[in-house]
Specification:
Length: 350
């Protein structure tokens, strides 16, 4: 008998076309996980509403763009379950039940809550949906009884909150199953390597900063963006020596260029043997070796988007079956089963 693989659960918000930061921070790791774990990856369109509730006109289009980039990057529906969050309504049902038992203080202490309230000032985030999104996130994970959640270190508190919600539910309610009285296992964070990826202005690559290189950017656009990218501020003149360890373009080389190119960059920059223009050209060459095959695969789905939609629909049906089984256990543990139960002589239920 083969050992049952642990289940991994993760998702991405419906933000539209993905950029290199998304690829390095999550997507590339997901692709590598497919042969090791039982992977469930979902497009989090409901989560997108926590900040974009006032205008939902682009949510579906953005969901498709995320999905196309997933498939182009190498996520395989034969090795992973790919689906859309809102197509599995059990997420909402479990979210409702979790919201009944989650203390308000738990949500207010989530690190990203205050941070985003302070930074996203152009939108009204004083809603329950924004405050309660970690509860929905817990439902996303626990409804599939995920063993592992791939995250960076800054997201570990979110997984810990999910563990606390699972623990609290298990304390209140239990199954009568002879094999397990616990409804939800407590998921563990799976810390994934995430290299530092700067945007074109030197800050973290983010759509909110307008400094991204998209996975769909054609080669001329990639090269033009790199031409304007910040470099080591100490290199004012061509003859000035630089330090690739403090240069955003040097960071790109460390992630995307091969050993030989990195050696040429390191030596050439430190001795002023190469200029920043040449260094950026080499960086563009390295990026296009990654992006060309991704864009070629994406083109197949762009020409026939129904293929991608069918994959998502099929994955959603598979996810529904798993979610429905979990919800049957949840209702049973809470004494709220949908099955008819005749009252006993004392007037209660059998």
């Amino acid at each position: 008998m083969t050992e049952q693989r642990k289940r991994v659960l993760s998702g991405m918000r419906s933000t539209g076309k993905l950029h290199l930061g998304n690829f390095v921070g999550a997507l590339d790791n997901w692709v590598r996980m497919q042969d090791q774990y039982d992977c469930f990856f979902f497009v989090a369109d409901w989560h997108a509403l926590t900040t974009d509730y006032a205008d939902t006109s682009q949510v579906k289009r953005n969901s498709m763009d995320v999905s196309l980039d997933w498939l182009a990057a190498g996520l395989d529906p034969d090795r992973s379950t790919l689906f859309i969050q809102s197509h599995v309504p059990q997420h909402a049902e479990l979210h409702l039940l979790f919201s009944m038992i989650t203390p308000l203080g738990w949500l207010e202490r989530v690190p990203s809550y205050k941070e985003q309230r302070e930074n996203i000032t152009e939108k009204d985030l004083g809603t329950y949906g924004f405050l309660g999104y970690p509860v929905l996130q817990a439902a996303d994970i626990l409804i599939y009884k995920g063993d592992l959640v791939p995250v960076g270190e800054d997201q570990v508190p979110h997984v810990e909150l999910t563990r606390e919600i699972a623990r609290r539910f298990n304390q209140f309610y239990s199954l009568t199953s002879p094999t397990s009285a616990v409804v939800f296992p407590e998921p563990q964070p799976l810390l994934t390597p995430a290299a530092k990826l700067p945007g074109t202005d030197g800050r973290k690559m983010s759509k909110s900063y307008g400094n991204t290189i998209l996975l769909t950017d054609p080669e001329p656009v990639v090269r033009q963006k790199l031409k304007t990218m910040m470099t080591d501020p100490a290199r004012v003149r061509r003859t000035d020596r630089g330090n690739p360890d403090v240069c955003p373009v040097g960071d790109l080389h460390k992630i995307f260029s091969d050993r030989e190119t990195n050696a040429r960059v390191d030596s050439g920059c430190r001795t002023a043997g190469i200029g920043c223009i040449e260094c950026k050209k080499w960086a563009a060459d390295s990026l296009m070796r990654i992006l060309d095959p991704i864009q070629a695969r994406r083109k197949k789905y762009e020409e026939n988007p129904r293929l991608a939609w069918d994959i998502l629909e099929s994955g959603s049906e598979k996810a529904k079956k798993v979610a429905a089984q979990t919800m049957a256990e949840v209702r049973d543990a809470m004494g709220m089963s949908l099955a008819f139960e005749a009252p006993d002589r004392a007037g209660g239920a059998k």
